[in-house]
Amino acid sequence: GVALCAAADTESRLFCIRSATGLPRSDSWPKNPAPEAWVKVQVGGRLVCTTEELQNSVSPVWDHCCHVAGSHEHSTFSLSVFDSDFAGPEADWLGSATLPANATGVHTLPLQGGMALPTSTLTVELVPPSPPANPIDLSAKRVAGGEMLEAADLAAEVEGKRRFMCVMSAEGLVETDFFPRVGSFRKPDAWVNIGTFE
Known about the structure:
This protein is mainly beta. The chain has one helix at 148-155; strands at 2-8, 13-21, 37-43, 46-50, 61-68, 76-85, 88-100, 105-110, 121-127, 141-143, 163-170. Strands 5-2-9-8 form a four-stranded antiparallel sheet, with no helix packed on it. The chain has a four-stranded antiparallel sheet with strand order 4-3-6-7, with no helix packed on it.
């Protein structure tokens, strides 16, 4: 049998990029000089969220949320706004802002650097992690090959969170290796393939 466990990512939180105001008119062509603005969010140098490009707006509204996994209480979110054009997605840097990663709630941040104007702002919202629900303990669940989907269904009961399934151990596997032909090293070089499930 194979022992499985399932757990939810209790440290996952929502990072929502709501809107920007007062962005500079950075395009010189075509006729509308307003930017095709988008936002990139990094924490600890790692990209965690991007928005789509919104065409020709100095006050774009994205209302785009990303799940940010892990605990980053001593880190800082770095937010950068760009204007995408024919020279590339980061052709024009419109400004940046920072926010402590342990912040919660709605924040309107002044943009600095790049082409930012004194009136350029970015509004974001950080939703704290939900309190953990009653965990489903599959640590003692033993399955045979045909029961793997049943275990996946049990793991899927952890609603509203990213789910993880881990393989803890296996026992009673058939001796399948024939080399070397001598000695007691006929134990299999075992591995497990787990597919994704919704």
